[in-house]
Specification:
- It comes from Microbacterium salsuginis.
- The protein is of the alpha/beta class and about 130 residues long.
- It folds into 2 domains: about 55 residues, Signal recognition particle alu RNA binding heterodimer, srp9/1; about 50 residues, 2,3-Dihydroxybiphenyl 1,2-Dioxygenase, domain 1, CATH 3.10.180.
- The protein is built from 2 helices and 8 strands, in the order E-H-E-E-E-E-H-E-E-E.
- It has a 4-stranded mixed sheet, with helices on one face. The protein has a 4-stranded mixed sheet with strand order 5-8-7-6, covered by helices on one side.
- The longest helix has 12 residues.
- The protein is globular and about 40 Å long.
Amino acid sequence: MLSIGSIVLTVEDIERAGNFWRAALGYVNRREPSEDWVILDPPSKTHWRDPGTSLALSVTGYPQHYPPRIHLDLYADDQSAEIERLLSLGAREVDWHGYPPDADWIVLEDTEGNRFCVVDVGTEDPDREE
């Protein structure tokens, strides 16, 4: 049986991206980062088999593609507070005009241009399709 080991984001500046995602998610380095690779884990995860999604950052040298073919959905109990916090960490708002009138998510991008959504789980089912 397969399981997802980690989600990998490509980055240009691994230190900047690592700082952003550690602060955004409260994650920690699994081990010391190399020049082109780091895996971030929830702080309670002590072994790779433990529950909790890991996030890996990889320096590839390839430019970001827009629109991206994959993105993260981050669930927030207080969406506006989390968006404000993420923007203060270096996230940027995405000028996107595809929101339906009842959208419960906001599209942001990290310091490397990787897009993610901040979903307000207080208003809708977070597992519904976007």
